[in-house]
Amino acid sequence: MHPLVATNTPGASAPVDTAGPPSGTTGRFGLSPHAEGMLALAVTVAIWAAFALSARALGASTLLPADAALLRFGVPVLVLAPALWRRRRRIAAVRPGAAVKIVCGAGVPFFLAAMHGGALTSAAFVGSIVPGMVPLFVAALMAARGRGLPRGAQVAGLALIAAGVAALVWRYVVPVDADVLEGAGTLLVASGLWALYTVGLRDVDLDPVGSIGLLCLPSFAVIALLVLTGALPTGLAHAAGGDIALFLVVQGLGVGLCAGLLYAFAIRRLGAERSSVVGSLSPVAVVLLAIPVLGESPTAAVLVGVPLITVGVVLANRRPGTRTRPSAHPRPEVPADA
To answer: Nearest Cα to 190, choosing from 111, 283, 247, 92?
Structure first.
């Protein structure tokens, strides 16, 4: 996704968080570094929101999930081909275990799970559950690896995330709505896979472009093989041009290429904590955009669950003892690619 938001867990080695160039300097576009960072972050949040909206919209389009996956992973490979060729040795040198985490965690399994879950639920579910549950899953993975347990505000944040997800799905438990519960369960699987991807990124030494290549090259090969062998159906040859263009822009160029690069740029300009806090607003953006774009009306469960998840993600991304002053330099974990 996504999507999607930064996560922080105790015990993991964290990249140095810088606040960017000194204030008062002018960036390459005539804006201050802070303004450049905020602009990049605003576009990134919009792209993350678009991922959730497109997951919901896929069911009403002329494209099939395999077609959307071909665009999602194929476009970045095509656009970045020269840069990826220059990085081929570094990509090939990544340890197999870390590569499997990245490819499975954000590749074809994640993408198909997110699309299927979105088709059965709503954009609000995709935009909240997939990124929202990542900190909780990452905390569990890190604890299982002996990297320590969450502390302080992180515990409260994880509890709020769990409460928010429970608020979202509770109304579909009594009485039982099998389709929505299946969709929510599939989105939880997608979130768990993204957590695996996040942990895998911490084990590799690649820049954002290299990380995109490590993810998209094998993912495109897998989805192309599944389509060519008939394991997954495709309707790309007969799809409407407007649907192809929409998913090419949102999934291929937006999610596949721009989100990771822009988020990395925002982190360099603003610092990781401020970027992750603003980035955690993507569930709210999804709910607001789904009203005019998809005609979805937020239910009471959404109005309760989404704010709980958003606040929970903000708290879960904080290190124990950090302060939210502009001069502070905390060092939360952030994925190199969204």
So the answer is: 111
